[in-house]
Design a protein that fits this description.
Helices cover 61% and strands 3% of the residues. It has 18 helices and four strands. The protein has a two-stranded antiparallel sheet. The model is unreliable at 1-22, 347-353 and 449-454 (pLDDT under 50). Keywords: Membrane, Transmembrane, Transmembrane helix. InterPro entries: WaaL-like. The chain crosses the membrane at residues 42-64, 76-94, 109-130, 142-168, 217-236, 243-260, 280-305, 317-338, 372-395, 416-441. Residues 1-24 are annotated as: Disordered.
C-alpha cells in the first residue's frame, strides 16, 4: 500500500496573488512641473499666474545641475540664439524710432527684464522636462496634468461669463511699488480678473480671461490645452474619464463662444480637420465633428458667433498696428528695439496717441497683436526668423511620430505658427507651446531608448 505524500503549502513567495499594478508615479524631482500645472489657480490668486514659471525655474535648474551632463533636443540651439539675440537687443532700448513716442523709463526696462526672465525660464523648463526619465515623470501623467489645467481654464471661462466683474488685488500687486504695479503690461499679469470688458460687438461685452493674462491668452491657451485634454482623458482614459471628458467639453463650449475669439475658433477648426486627416479613426472623428457642429448650430450660441463675424471690430486696429510695427522694425532689422513702442496716431487719427485726457485714443503698443510682430520690433527680422525656424523645424522633425502624443504635439507646433500672427505668446501661451515641444522630444527619446534596448 502506497501512502501518498502529504500536501505541503506553497511558501509565501510563490503563492498566487493579485496581479501587480504597473502604474508609475512621478518622482520627487518632477514636483516643479506639477506645482505649475496643478497649482496654477493658486499662482493666479497670488498675482504670479504665468510668471510662476520664473519662480519654478529655480528648482528646475537645481534638478538639472544635479544630473549633468545635460541633454538638449535637436534644434534647441535656435532657441538659445533667440535668447542671445534678445540680450543684444537691449542696446537699443533707449532709442525712439521715427513715428513713435516715449522715453526710456522704468516701465520699459521692467518689461524687457520680465520677458528676458521668461525666455531664460522656458529654456530651463524644456531642458528640465527632457532630462527627467519616463519613470520620474511618465508621459501620460504629464499629459493628464495638462488636462487638469484645461479644466481650470474652463472653470475660469465660466466665471468670466457668469461673473465678469470678479476681480481682486493680489498679494504681489500689494507688495510691488505703484510705479511698477501701475505699468499696463505688469498690471495685466498681476491683477486677477475674470474677464475683460471690450466693445467687440459695438457695446460692452465680457470676454473670459481667468486664470490667464488677458482674453486672447485664454483663447490661445484653451485651444492648446484641449488637445492634450482629449489625448489624456479620452485617448488614454478609461470609461469614467471619458464621460468626464464629454461633460467638460460640452461645458467648455459656452466660454469658448462668449470669448468672441476668432483666432480660437479658427484654431479649433484646424484641430478638427487635423483629427479627421491624421486621426486613428477618421470616419468616427468626422461623424463626431458633424454631430457637434449640428448641435452648435441649433443652439443659441450660434447667434453670438454670427454677431461676432458681422462685427470685425479689431480689424482696423490690427491693420494699423501691424503696418506701423513693420515700418518701425525695418529701421532696425538686425537687433530690433528690445521692447515694444507706442506709435503716434491710431487707425482713426494721425495726430496723437493715448493720453490722460483721452484714454480711448491711440491703440495697443506696437508688437502686441501677435508674437511675430513682437519679435520683429523687439529683436528684428533675425529674431522672427529664429522663432519660425524653431517651431517649423519641430513640425518637420516630429511629423513621422504617429503616436497620439506625437500627433497632438505636432498639431500644437502647427498652431504656434498660425497664432504668431494674431496672439502674443508671452507668457502662459509660450509656456504651453514649449511644454508641448518637450513632450514631443521626450516621446522621440523614449522610442529611441526602446529600440536600443531591443
Amino acid at each position: 500500500m502506497t501512502i501518498p505524500a502529504p500536501r505541503t503549502a506553497l511558501p509565501p513567495a510563490v503563492r498566487p496573488g493579485p496581479r501587480p499594478r504597473h502604474r508609475r508615479r512621478p518622482a520627487r524631482a518632477a514636483w516643479p512641473i506639477a506645482a505649475f500645472l496643478l497649482g496654477y489657480p493658486v499662482w493666479w490668486a497670488l498675482g504670479l499666474g504665468g510668471l510662476s514659471v520664473v519662480v519654478l525655474a529655480v528648482p528646475m535648474a537645481v534638478v538639472l545641475l544635479r544630473r549633468r551632463p545635460i541633454r538638449a533636443p535637436k534644434g534647441f540651439g535656435l532657441w538659445a540664439l533667440l535668447l542671445a539675440g534678445y540680450l543684444v537687443s537691449a542696446l537699443a532700448l533707449a532709442e525712439t524710432p521715427d513715428g513713435t513716442y516715449g522715453e526710456l523709463t522704468a516701465g520699459r526696462v521692467v518689461g524687457y527684464l520680465m520677458r528676458l526672465a521668461v525666455y531664460v525660464s522656458l529654456l530651463i523648463m524644456v531642458l528640465y522636462l527632457g532630462n527627467l526619465t519616463h519613470d520620474e515623470l511618465p508621459q501620460r501623467t504629464l499629459v493628464r496634468w495638462l488636462g487638469v489645467l484645461f479644466l481650470t481654464a474652463v472653470a475660469g471661462g465660466l466665471l468670466g461669463v457668469l461673473a465678469p466683474g470678479f476681480a481682486f488685488t493680489s498679494p504681489l500687486e500689494t507688495a510691488l511699488p505703484s510705479s511698477i504695479a501701475g505699468n499696463p503690461f505688469v498690471a495685466n499679469l498681476i491683477h486677477p480678473t475674470a474677464a475683460q470688458m471690450q466693445h467687440v460687438l459695438g457695446h460692452a461685452e465680457p470676454r473670459p480671461e481667468a486664470p490667464f493674462e488677458w482674453a486672447n491668452a485664454w483663447g490661445s491657451d484653451v485651444s492648446v490645452l484641449v488637445i492634450w485634454f482629449v489625448v489624456g482623458w479620452w485617448t488614454y482614459g478609461g470609461p469614467y474619464r471619458r464621460v468626464a471628458a464629454v461633460l467638460a467639453l460640452a461645458a467648455a463650449a459656452v466660454p469658448v463662444v462668449y470669448s468672441l475669439n476668432r483666432g480660437l475658433w479658427i484654431g479649433l477648426g484646424i484641430s478638427a480637420a487635423y483629427l479627421v486627416i491624421r486621426g486613428a479613426r477618421p470616419l468616427l472623428a468626422a461623424a463626431v465633428a458633424a454631430v457637434a457642429a449640428a448641435a452648435f448650430l441649433l443652439s443659441p450660441l450660434s447667434t453670438i458667433v454670427a454677431q461676432r463675424l458681422d462685427n470685425p471690430h479689431s480689424n482696423g486696429i490690427r491693420a494699423f498696428t501691424v503696418a506701423a510695427t513693420v515700418r518701425v522694425a525695418a529701421t532696425s532689422p538686425v537687433i530690433g528695439y528690445g521692447n515694444t513702442r507706442n506709435a503716434y496716431g491710431s487707425h482713426r487719427t494721425v495726430t496723437t496717441g493715448r493720453s490722460p485726457w483721452c484714454v480711448e485714443c491711440g491703440h495697443p503698443p506696437l508688437g502686441s497683436d501677435g508674437q511675430l510682430w513682437l519679435l520683429l520690433i523687439s529683436q528684428g527680422v533675425a529674431g522672427a526668423l529664429l522663432y519660425v525656424a524653431f517651431f517649423a523645424g519641430a513640425v518637420r522633425r516630429y511629423w513621422a511620430d504617429r503616436t497620439p502624443i506625437g500627433k497632438a504635439g505636432t498639431l500644437v507646433m502647427i498652431l504656434v505658427l498660425l497664432y504668431m500672427f494674431v496672439y502674443d505668446g508671452l507668457i502662459s501661451a509660450l509656456t504651453l507651446y514649449l511644454i508641448s515641444f518637450a513632450l514631443l522630444w521626450r516621446n522621440a527619446a523614449g522610442t529611441s531608448d526602446l529600440r536600443e534596448a531591443r
